[in-house]
Amino acid sequence: MKKMHTAGILIVLASLYGTGAMAITGTEIIRKSEDSVRGATAVAQYRITIKTRRWERTLVLRAWDSRKGNRSFSEILSPERDEGNRFLMLDTTMWHYVPKLQKAYKISPSMMLQSWMGSDFSNDDIIKESSITKDYFHKLEGKATMNGEECYRVELTPKPEAPVVWGKIVYYARVEDCLPVKEEYYNERGVMRKFMEFSDIKRMHDRLIPATMKMQTVGKTGSYTILYIDAIRFDTAIPERIFTLQNLQRR
Fold this sequence. Notes:
The protein is of the alpha+beta class.
């Protein structure tokens, strides 16, 4: 009887701790995924290839990112006609400096869904990565096989009054390490408008990350945008002057 009683206690403990309290949550998955691919800071150089049915071009971009205060600064290095375009983000506010006009423009909320530099990325896509943990509720929906990987499927829905434009984001992260595999973006009516796939996982600086991200707009056949990480360093000190309007508007 004593052995049976002990066995019963073990079963109860297993049900409480083995499958409940110790199970990973949607928020933990998102945070772990963000920590893996972003770090506290990042300094990187990217290539962004934009392809449509009529033309194709590639931008080279240098970027500085800090999760403290959700700040980022980036500058286009080439091609020549786009060189010198700069972008500054402070929390959820974004500015664009246009060198030909020698003027900086604040991106208004009504412009957040507009295309960024003619790509499949919108202005909102550029800033949403820094708000994905704080502006959404995260619900773990289960597991799914995505692009041959066993993934967690996490549904993100906006918190009340959150400054976001998507009605829902579905996030797929690898079970083994929570690295992102795919993100799906839905409007307020529940219709998927875009999706982004992550691939080419490699060691860059001090960690494994997806080095290639492909964004596609639903219904735009033959059009897509691919972002390649050419070089990146994490958790390095970034001077405060980088994230200023003075730096954005320098000539």
